[in-house]
Specification:
Elements lengths: L2 H14 L3 H17 L4 H15 L6 H12 L2
Length: about 80
C-alpha cells in the first residue's frame, strides 16, 4: 500500500464530503488520537527538569550507576 497515495485519496474524499455527522466523527477520532499521546503538565515539568539537569551536567555515567548499585546491593 502506498501510504502517500492513500492519504491523498482520503483528502480528496474529505474535501468533497457534505455529511456533517461524518465530519464530527472524524474530528472526534482526531481529538481522541491526539489526547492519547498527550502528556500531562506534571510529565512535562519532569521532562524539563531532566533536560535542565543534563544541561547543567547533573548526570551520572553508566559506570557510576553500576558502581553504586554494586556497593549498595553487593552485585
Amino acid at each position: 500500500m502506498d501510504l502517500q497515495l492513500e492519504k491523498y485519496k482520503l483528502m480528496e474524499w474529505l474535501v468533497s464530503l457534505k455529511d456533517e455527522s461524518i465530519i464530527h466523527k472524524l474530528k472526534k477520532i482526531k481529538e481522541t488520537n491526539q489526547s492519547e499521546y498527550a502528556i500531562s503538565e506534571a510529565e512535562q515539568l519532569f521532562i524539563e527538569a531532566g533536560l535542565k539537569d543534563v544541561d547543567e551536567g547533573n548526570t551520572f555515567t553508566h559506570q557510576q550507576v553500576m558502581e553504586e548499585i554494586s556497593k549498595k546491593y553487593g552485585i
